[in-house]
Amino acid sequence: HAAFAPVTTAVGKSEVPATAIKQASEELIGFMAEMCDLSSCKYAEHGTGKVDYLADFVLAMASFGKPANKLIRVFSTNIDLCVEAALVRLSQRPRADRRPDVVLVDGFESAILPTFNMGCYRREMASFGERCAIYYWKLHGSIDWTYSQAIGADGSGEGEAAYSDQSIIVRRVDGDLLDKLANCGALSSKQPNANKRIVIFPTPAKYSQTYTVPYMDLFEAFRRTLEEIELLICIGTSFPDQHIRSAIRSFVERDNTLLFVVDPQVKSDKLKSIFGVSRSVQPVISMGFLQFVQEF
Questions:
Q1: For the segment 253-281, what is each residue's pLDDT rounded down to a tens digit?
Q2: Which of 249, 113, 123 shows the shortest CA–CA distance to 186?
Q3: Residue 230 to residues 94, 139, 292, Cα–Cα distance (Å)
Q4: Stretch (H or E) spanning 104
Q5: Coil, helix or strand for 9?
Q6: DSSP helix, strand, coil percent of the chain (3-state; round to 5)
Q7: Amino acid 215: pLDDT
Q8: C-alpha distances out from residue 97 to 6, 64, 260, Å
Q9: What is the mean pLDDT of the chain?
Q10: pTM of the predicted model as reported, rounded to 2 decimal places
Q11: Mean pLDDT confidence for 56-73
C-alpha cells in the first residue's frame, strides 16, 4: 500500500554503490540516444532509412487550404530527430518549388547557442507571411537537448550541477563551443561535469519532474491545444503515458471532435478500453506510416 516502490541500492544480496548506479544511468541514456540517432537505421531491419516520406506527409498537410496563416501542430513523445530532418529536406528544395513553403517552430531561439524558450510558440502568425508554420513540441525532450546553469550574481552559476528548475536548456553543439563560451563569460562557469548530458524527460525523478520546467509547460501546451482543435491524428503510439491518455480522453469527450489512430498493431477494442465508447474515435487505420503516407 505504498505510494511508490521503495528505493534501494541492493540487487539480490549485494549492495551496489551509488556511483555505479549513476554511471549505468548515464550509459543507458547514451545508448538510448545512439538508438535514436539519424544513423540508427543501420540497426533496424524495417523502414527505408530515409525521411522523405515524413517530408511528403508534412507537405501534404501543408497543402490543404490557404497557405497564409496556416498552422500545423505536432506533438511527439519521441526523442529522435526525424521530423527535424524531414523539415531540412523540405528546405533544400529549389526556391521555385517551395510551394507551400514551411517553417519550423520548435521552441529554440536562433543564436550561436540556441536556447529553449516557450515564448517562441507565441510568435504572431502574420510574421511567417505565406509560409506554413510547423509548431513542434517534443514532450519528452530530445537527444539534441542539453542544459547549462543560470549565471548567478557572482558569475559562478546558480544551483547544483544536476538539472533543476534553474537550468537552461540549449541545443547540443559539436566541438568545444560550450567550453569556449564558458571561458569568455558567456555561460556560467559552474557547468555540469558532463556538459553534453542529454535532456530526456522524464528522468528517474519522474514524479517530481512532471511539475518542473519545461516538462510541465510542454504538456500544458498539449492539453491546451486539445481544447482548441477538432481533429487529432495519432501515429504509431500505444498510448503508454497516463497523463497523455487522460488529455486525449477529455478531447474525445467534447462534441464535434475526431480522433484518427494510424498503427498496424493497435486494435479498435484497445481504443475503447482506453477512451471509452465515443463517436469521436474513428476506426483504426491499420497500416504502417509509410503505407499511410502513400495512400494519403
A1: 998 999 999 999 998 899 999 998 999 99
A2: 113
A3: 34, 21, 21
A4: strand 102-105
A5: coil
A6: 35, 15, 50
A7: 87
A8: 59, 17, 31
A9: 85
A10: 0.86
A11: 81
